[in-house]
Amino acid sequence: MLHSISHKVAQFTESVIREMTRQALLHNAVNLSQGFPDFPAPAEIKQAACDAINADINQYAVTWGAKRFRDAIAAKTKWHLGFDVDPDREVVVTCGSTEAMIATMLALVNPGEEVIVFEPYYENYGPDAILTEATIRYVSLLAEGHAEDGNGNFWTFDPDELRAAFNDKTRAIILTNPHNPTGKVFTRAELQLIADLCIEFDVLAFTDEIYEHIWYPDTARDVRHISLATLDGMRERTVSINSLSKTYSVTGWRVGYAIAPPVLTDAIRKVHDFLTVGAAAPLQDAGAFALSLPQSYYDSLQQTYLKKRDFLLGVLNEAGFKCYKPDGAYYIMTDISGFGFADDVAFTKHLISEVGVAVVPGSSFYRQSDGGKQQVRFTYCKRAETLQAAAEKLQKLK
Ligand SMILES: Cc1ncc(COP(=O)(O)O)c(C=O)c1O
């Protein structure tokens, strides 16, 4: 008994993604597994953090977020996502979007209720559901029209399968948009379908929009990020989750936020207060500065990642991977069946120890199906030199 652990915790393992970073360090491999930039955060944002510390913003902020930061969140959400937010009643500042999601789940979902998640999915939602004692209903994302040259394919889902996932136990749908790991950016028609079902079944939506600025215009298709909360009837039933991590390349700052109607926000604030008390006060102050950056900052972020995406796609295609070209976020899901390995874990081990490149095995993004058994995920949020080093090592696969 002394060393027994809780039933809930016994149901999940440590993060596979973060374990891959440890393996990369162990084998001195180029780390294209975990999604954190290996280049510096923007100088002016770092300066704002130093200024905040020097100005003695070093004590607890208001538990649900410093006023200046909440005001900046409301202003940016208005101009960028296109809806009004009351900074005093509708915002909770959290320790990353990670805390925003678990606090939201604990605050709004009862044990035994169901939450819909598109699979493959970002692995945190699994433990989030276990800790909440909720059941996940998975809806498959399928790589349709997967072109061998890595061009022009995109992930879709079956509307009937989505409808079948909704029932009277459904409390919420989690929507990651742009999506990790597939890079899918949901179209307006798909979002409308999701919205219609949420309204019909009186279900909440928890949107993870941390890649809101990282998507790639396409000449053949209308790719753009649309926030689910902006669709008719959705604002009052959506918790929009976001973070500084990816947009400002500060994943280690652990500053995120949730935006929701006042009644939902009150509940999330309570959980947040007792989970963490609050996010780092000086970094919230720097966050207010970051959120005030002009459109040109986001344009240049998009251009930077577009170049990195196209570079890595070229490298991977040449090395023999079939690539699912991403429309957004900064990952490439690949099909490894051409290499003849038993599964994604065996391939990943080989790639880390023999080739010297760390990736994430596809199966860590799947629970319901074994769709990930011949897939691995690469990230390209890395310096050009890092991607070049990976390219050289991947030659060994040929
Ligand atoms: C979809 C998704 N949500 C959340 C996170 C974690 O974000 P944060 O640093 O804001 O906790 C990640 C990180 O990779 C992610 O890909």
Structure, explained:
This protein is an alpha/beta fold and about 400 residues long. Helix content is about 40%, strand content about 15%. It has a seven-stranded mixed beta sheet, with helices on both faces. Strand 11 and strand 12 (about 330-335) form a beta hairpin. The radius of gyration is 21 Å and the shape is globular. The protein starts with 15 loop residues before the first helix and ends with a helix. Bound molecules: pyridoxal-5'-phosphate (PLP). Pyridoxal-5'-phosphate binds near residues 176, 180, 251 and 256.
Number of domain units:
2
Identify every distinct bound molecule in the structure, by name, code or SMILES.
Answer: pyridoxal-5'-phosphate
Mean pLDDT: 94
Write down how many β-strands occur, each being a DSSP E stretch of 2 or more residues.
Answer: 15
What is the end-to-end distance? 52 Å
Q: Which fold name fills CATH's third level, the topology of the largest domain?
A: Aspartate Aminotransferase, domain 2
The named CATH superfamily of the largest domain:
Type I PLP-dependent aspartate aminotransferase-like (Major domain)
- Over the alpha carbons, how many angstroms does the gyration radius reach? 21 Å
Per CATH, the architecture of the largest domain is 3-Layer(aba) Sandwich
Q: H/E series, N to C?
A: HEHHEHEHEEEHEHEEEHHHEEHEEEH
Number of helical segments? 12
State the CATH class of the largest domain: Alpha Beta
Q: What structural class should be given to the helix and strand makeup?
A: alpha/beta
For the biggest sheet, the summary is:
7 strands, mixed
Helix content: 25-40%
Low-pLDDT parts are 146-151
Strand order of the largest sheet: 2-10-9-8-7-3-4
How large is the share of residues in beta strands? 15-25%
| Outline type | globular
